Batch of 2 targets.
Target 1
Amino acid sequence: MRKEEIISKLPYSKPFLFVEEISHIDENGVEGNFTFDENLDFYKGHFKDFPVTPGVILTEVMAQIGVVCLGIFLLNNTFSENNSIALTSTNVEFLKPIFPNEKVKVFSEKIYFRFGKLKCKVMMKNEKGEVVCTGIIAGMMVSPPQPSPQGREPKLD
Amino acid sequence: MNKEQTIDELKNIVKPYIVNQEAFDALTVETDFINDLKINSANLVDVILDIEEKYNIVIDNESMERMINVKSAMEIIETKLSERE
């Protein structure tokens, strides 16, 4: 599957698409990058008069590149709009801040992909090649939630 | 395969993933992984991978779907172990 095709299959759009380019992908892992536009909305409030990229957003960048892109690649043509994806766990440590206009590179290594769950060891580096954050992120490909007869919210698990 | 020993081993495997401590403390063969122990479906995958590693067996999709409680887990482990011999 071509790298551009994977990005086109991502279920995100602006302002929540955090994949700019996939530079390498194979069945064992993926590398990709993203540049933080200074006009992104969260910089207005995180922090007041001192824009720094929130850790949750760095985690999201790592999850989108490192887990979702790789998951789409691994499922190849069996991934469709009928699949929904869910983040199931993150364990991330943060070492350096990322400021507006910085470009980050994400490196992800597959730990396993079994029973629909993809677990990866993911690392983010800044343009100087310094480690920004590192951790373990997992997600699952799940069938779309069906509206239940009682009108209750369907549970993920 | 010693039943009591296997239950203890399974208890050790599920321990990091359980949410309901009371159900865990009172664990029996009828204890359901999701409904009683409140293990979520993503962590259930880790439980199964830990079982594979512990008993050196491979669990297929069909067995995975049947593995809903302690009893079914023990049956599947026993079957897989006997297939291996």
Target 2
Amino acid sequence: MTLSPAEIDALLLSLKIAAVAVAGALPFAILAASALTFGRFPGRFLLDAIVHLPLILPPVVMGYLLLISFGTRAPIGAWLLHTFDIRLVFSWGGAALAAGIVSFPFQVRAIRIALENMDPGLHQAAETLGAGPFDRFINITLPLALPGIIAGAITAFSASLGEFGAIITFVSNIPGETRTLPLAIYTAIQTPGGELAAARLAALSIGLALFGLVISEMAMRGIRQKLTGQVRP
Amino acid sequence: MSLKINIRHQAGTLDLQAQFKVEQPGITALFGPSGSGKTTLINAIAGLIKPDSGTLTINDSTVFDSATKTHMSPRKRRVGYVFQDARLFPHLTVRKNLFFAHRRATNRLPENQVDAIIAMLGIGDLLSRRPAKLSGGERQRVSLGRALLGNPDILLLDEPLSALDQARKEEILPYLEALRDQRRLPILYVSHSIDEVARLADHIVVMDKGRVRASGSVFDILARTDLAPLTGQFDAGAVIPATVTGHDPKGGISYLGCAGHQLIVPLLPSANTTTTHASTIPQQTRLHIRARDVMIATSIPDGISANNILPATIAALTPVGTGNIEAALHLGHAAKGRILTTPVIQARITNWSALRLSLEVGQQVYAVIKSVTVDGKLRDTDA
């Protein structure tokens, strides 16, 4: 099974977009998860709802919302274009933004579970040992939440690789710029005689998903072993 | 070095009202049953909870005062806290755990003292391990070292031994004794085990239902029969100061001095070290003499296996339980009408014995001591 140059382009583009989407959303996901776990402020429920919105909205609606906010004539899009000369519509950066937002809830949920399961006693211990709030966050909270952060990142990466509706609505289906694997599969199916190409790309997607699953399982096992000293079957 | 406490705090069913001072180095035991407010109290001292009202002073620095709305954060209080469950950071090695507070301290402990603490606790070989690979006893030693390396003004120990089995306890106790004897640091030791308290503490604060019921030296408090419901009935007895005066390795015995009297016990393990360091004799120690191990004789018994028969004067006779009497005995014979100030030991005898010997307060008798606890180990003295 050999891939055509266009198909390799789609694969590499998908990986690039997913990586940028996850890395870009990660700091915000950690902030949101911390605020939702430890924060006691009015509007916490609203934040929770906004974070989960991409999970319940149809992706096409997400793409539409992005289009009316980040289009070149839309308020944020126009400002970005004039101030920084950044155009998100019809560009891979826009695809990364769409993928990052759609997969955001997966990151937040995984990190939040890790934070909620953390022993508050360790924080007290760190406090009596002279660590301030920021110090504790960097040296205790984040390292202990690492399994959750990794799990969230891998789930979000997979979700980003598979994102279709928001991407095609917001940044269209431009070969070499926004045509990711799912869009390439869709295009192949639409093209007469493209069944074989569609099958190849679908197999590639399945392989990629399984690979991600194995990597995530191995990473989790390694960390768990380090923290608990036990090897689980 | 001082700690002044005067706080009120309501938490759930607990109504804590505590007022006492610790003005000396050494171990002060916070002793009382579960739910008496011991942990709440040291959490307030550490700053982990904010009391409803009152004041807290550590070394002339007011760390909490409800009147002026002062509530210093835990990290500025210079308090070392050893938790019941050790609370080592699982993602850090023993070395990084140990140096966590040291690296953050404003007045760092000198290197040679750091090395001395690591050596004293015997954790030098564990430095590269992770907490998950440590035994329960090792974990508590590392936790103790971590708190000490922060160079605290006061050390708080919250039942550091309660999660350990007897063998692991025996592994830690010598380190706590060394800590008490080597470092001039006030230590607040929360415990509900009277054996630990009798062995380690210099002072006791007895707590019950959120109130301080009594406080004073370990010898005075444990001699008070009125506190027996709190300090425990069965192993009740006296803790008295004593001096190791000599050893006879051939005869297999050691000599102890107590209020001018001599006691003979099986050769103490410290005999081996003291022969090479003659300067450590006389050496201070403490005896725990259980009431049930003491018999009373009206004249010096003849032909008896017990080695320790001390003259004593009956100070009080208190009925306990059904058919028993607890006799408080001052060591030594007092002339009629004179009041003795010597240490008091307790003897538990039956009503029938007291009646048969027609015992009365002020009477001169002999205490026959079957066994004593020295250095936390029960030693039969008639064997």
